[in-house]
Every structure is written in C-alpha cells, then in structure tokens.
From TrEMBL, chain A:
One of its GO terms (molecular function) is molybdenum ion binding. It comes from the Bacteria. It holds the Pfam family MOSC. It comes from Tardiphaga robiniae. This is Molybdenum cofactor biosysynthesis protein.
TrEMBL record, chain B:
The keyword Flavoprotein applies. This is Oxidoreductase. It holds the Pfam family Fer2. One of its GO terms (molecular function) is 2 iron, 2 sulfur cluster binding. Residues 1-108 form the FAD-binding FR-type domain. Residues 235-318 form the 2Fe-2S ferredoxin-type domain. SUPFAM superfamilies: 2Fe-2S ferredoxin-like (SSF54292), Ferredoxin reductase-like, C-terminal NADP-linked domain (SSF52343), Riboflavin synthase domain-like (SSF63380). Keywords: 2Fe-2S, Flavoprotein, Iron, Iron-sulfur, Metal-binding, Oxidoreductase. Coiled coil: none annotated. It comes from the Bacteria.
Amino acid sequence: MLDTLTAKPVPGAVVLSWTGVVRYLHITPRAFLPMREMPELTLIAGKGIEGDRYMIGREEGFYSHKPEEGRQVTLFEYETLVALKRDHNIDLAPEEHRRNVTVSGVPLTHLVGRQFWLGETLLESTRLSIPCRHIEEITGKAIFDPLINRSGLNCKILQGGTVRVGDAVRNVQ
Amino acid sequence: MSAVPITKVRTIVDKIEDGGAGIKVFSLVDPDHWELPPFKPGAHIDLHLPGGLVRTYSLCNDPADDKRYVVAVKREVEGRGGSIVLHDEVKVGDTIGVMLPRGGLDLSTEVTRFTFVGGGIGVTPFLSAAAWLKRMGRSKFTLHMIARGEPPLADLLAPLRKSGHVVIHDTSSGQRPDIAALVGRPLSDVALACCGPDSMIDDFEQASRDWPADRVHIERFVPPPLPVDPDAKPYVLALAKSKREIVVAAGQTMLSALTDIGIDVPASCCGGICGSCKVDWLEGQPVHRDRVLSPAERERSLLVCVAGSAKDRLVLDL
C-alpha cells in the first residue's frame, strides 16, 4: 500500500512540487457577518488572524464553542469556485465560502498533516475543512453536497507574519 | 470561550427615532459597524427581546444600506407585548440578538410594474422595496399608503413622496379606499403586494383573486389562528440526528412536543408565516399548513409550529 506520510524519496526519482498564489484574503469579526475582503492579513503564531472571529481571545465564531488549533487560519481553493460553476452552475464568490485565504495552484487536499509557506508565514494543516449547513443558511445556496471533500483546509500557524494578496504559497522542501 | 453555539447576530441599538403615530424607528448595527448579513427588499428579522420575547419585524431600509437593520415598531397596547418592551425598555446602546433576515418581495425583472398597498405601519416592507427599486432605476411602482390623518414615518416616506411614488389615502375623513380599484385587473407585467390589518388584507385577497398567485404577495401582522382539526391523531416524531422518538399528541403542535423534551427550535410567529422554525424532514408525509414555503421547499422542509403528519410516523432532520 502506498504510504505517502512515511515513504522516503528515492534518490534520482522525480520530485513532485507545486507553487501557488494567494488570490483573496477575508476575515469577519463575528459569526454570521459577511466576510470582508482585505489586502493583507496579520497572522499570529498559535493564535489566529488579527480581527477574525476565531482569533484566540475573541472566540466569536460559529464553532468557537468547539475550539481547535486548525481554526487559526483556513484556506480554500479558487479552483473549487470554478468547479462549482462548471459542474453545478453555482456562482459562489470568494467571500461566500467563509475561509480566510483563497489560493490558486495549491493542492490543499494533499497537505493534511504537512507544513507549507503562506507568504512569510509557516502553517501546518490539521485536517480538511468540512462543509456545514450553516453556510447554506448564510448564502442561501445549495452548496453542502458539492463542497464535500473540497471545502478547504484547516491550519494552525507555526510562524506568524503578514500575508498579502499575490504572495506565493510554497511547499516546505 | 463561549460554552454554547452562537445562534444570533449580535446588534447594538444605535439610534431610536420618533416615527409619529406611536411609532419608534430603531436602527440596529454591529458593535464594530461591520456589514450585517444581507437581506432582500422587504425582508423581515426576528428580534430577541429582553424577557425572552421573540418578535418579527419588516426591515424598512434599502438592502444596499448594509450596516444597519432599520425596523419601525408601533406601540400596541393590545398587542402581544413585544412592541411595549421595545418602546418602554429598550434604549440606545442596548444589545439585541437577531436571527438572519428571511423572506422578502420577489422583485424579479420579469415584472416591470409594482402596486404596493400598505395600511399604517404595514407600509414598512414597501419602504425597503421602494428604496431598492429606485436605486436600481426601476421607477414604475406605486405605493398606496392608507392611514388615518398624516401618515407616519414621514422621514422614510419623504423621498418617495418627492419622486411621486406615493399615493396617500387618508381614512380620517371617510372610509378606506376601494382596494379593488387600487388593484385593478390582472396585467402581465404587474405584481401586487399588501401589508396591513387583517380586514384590509381580506379585501386585498378578494380583490386579487383573479391574479396569478406568484404575482401577489401578502404580509400579515399576526398569524391567523390555526383551524381546529377534529380528525387530528397522535403520531410518532422521530429525530434522526439525536436518535430520539416522541409522541405528538392529537392537536399538539410539533413545536410544543419538541420544546417539551428540551429541543430548542427557534420559533417566532408560531403561526406558519415567519419561517423561523423551518426544519428539514426526511421520511413520512407532512401536512404543511404554513403560508410561506414553496412547493419545492415543502419537498424538503416544514415549519414545526403548524405542520402535522398524515401518517403514523414522521422523521425530522434534528
């Protein structure tokens, strides 16, 4: 069985890699409120994003009563927005999926349990995000089923800093 | 850390203004003046008031005015208590929890002209709709405002009166205008809407009976009483998520049966018109009896305040 978590690179083998980019950044201070587009975000290691509802100490998110490290920052693939339109004729805007960072060219589903660079910040993914009915209630769009297994990535912040639109997203080599 | 899920939008009373005729106009904002959840023209929200009352009010402002929820509330001494609390207890700076806005008028572009009929405080959803239509450049609408004496909410009405969109019908010197004359005959590009006291709505329903149902919208102040069903039978209500089964007694509401076992379903009007207690059903055959769900919505959801079951067992997604 293929075990990508423990398999060691074979000398001389092809090295798979990727580089992505930050397309949109969003935060909101409280559950239910619209996400607001931002040019940059300040990530605090071990805590969250300044001004966001899941920042440690603020706890005003819909799931704040179920705390977990992976809510510090969440990512979403721009490619999923394209797929929703293509496969389901659903227009979902970047501010509607309610994750903080929309990226292009980043294989989020491959990154569970791994570390990667988001601009100058270092993240470690804890799990895939799970769609919830809450988002259907807020958007009024039937997106629960189409978002199963591609609803984004939950991450904790190992090294903080400023993330800007246009920043590179890179694998940890 | 919050020990319980956040279920409401937290707002602060930013402003309370006199709307005339015993009406106060409340502006609710986010504590940081962040944008509030969006709403459709003519939508309504539930306010969770001090003392545990939950009351539904139409939003008066333009949906583009996205940092405020504006509601106009008439003090009703003979009402159910919500307006008294708002008038007598609520102050600027108080916190009020609200549920996400619901409902609203269908102002689709297939319809190019609108006739709104508002009785007194019933004008509120049309203030929101009118502001939205004007901003969208769709100026073919008329708001018939029926009131005794000088109409209330003068500040909110002023721009619409100035642009010639309002016809005032003063009932202090005579009778209510002929609703049938305001409604007219069905026209393919016109939609109608009415909000006001029951007697006015009864007249409006009668006057619009020949119009296609999808182009007639009615908003009631209070839910009509549920008809007593002499054939009501008990049934089993199965809750799929919590894996519980309860018996709903003959004549008992599903909402009451759920509340009895400690399941908190948000409810407001308790009469099948506000939609706040909408729950998805999974198996069985509901008897709907609400006034808001579309046929498509009924395939998936029901309102627990009024729905019953045509069979011995009904399964909810709770």
